[in-house]
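Materials and Methods. Structural model of Peptidoglycan/xylan/chitin deacetylase (PgdA/CDA1 family). The 205-residue sequence of Peptidoglycan/xylan/chitin deacetylase (PgdA/CDA1 family) from Kitasatospora cineracea was retrieved and submitted for structure prediction as follows.
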Amino acid sequence: MADPASLTDTADGPPSRLPQPPSGTLALTFDDGPHPDSTPELLAALTAAGHRATFFLCGEQAERHPELVRALDRAGMAIGNHSWSHPSLPGLPLPAAREEIERTNRVLTALTGRPPTLFRPPYGDTGPTIRELATAAGLTETLWDVDTLDWNGVPPAEVAAAVAAARPGDTVLLHDHGNRNTVTALPAVLTALAARGLRSAPLPR
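The predicted structure was written out as tokens:
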């Protein structure tokens, strides 16, 4: 997997930051939810194994499934902003890109009682203007170290192998958009982490 910096453009502007999970941990992160066909099972597996993760939620999905957002929050999962409707933000007019971020902030704040502090741009598409919009909204842009390719339909065993090869401190990209491969892979992922004496922790808020 390329260094996260390679996912951004090279123009001047504030760099993307990657908050580090605590020592002895890595950060499992799930994009695109919440989704009724995956979020409950992902949450149940994480909770049963004593792990916590970060869920980057799309605003329109959060508005559609508020009970799932509240369940994630009650379970101690970190909740981040993943835009409203998952467009490639650099291709939008500036006001539209700003509204994608700020509208999601408003919904997540209303559902959890506090504003999110983490932001992941859809597809990792970003640049100085998008980072500035996120910063203005009180968010830290957060990319990843390891892409499991679960979004591309790889088999559950390959998803688990990608996580098993991750290093302590890494941020791992997974998805929560109804993908059964990810749901199926998660128990093996958590078993592999336990075998290495690692656990998943939420990214610092």
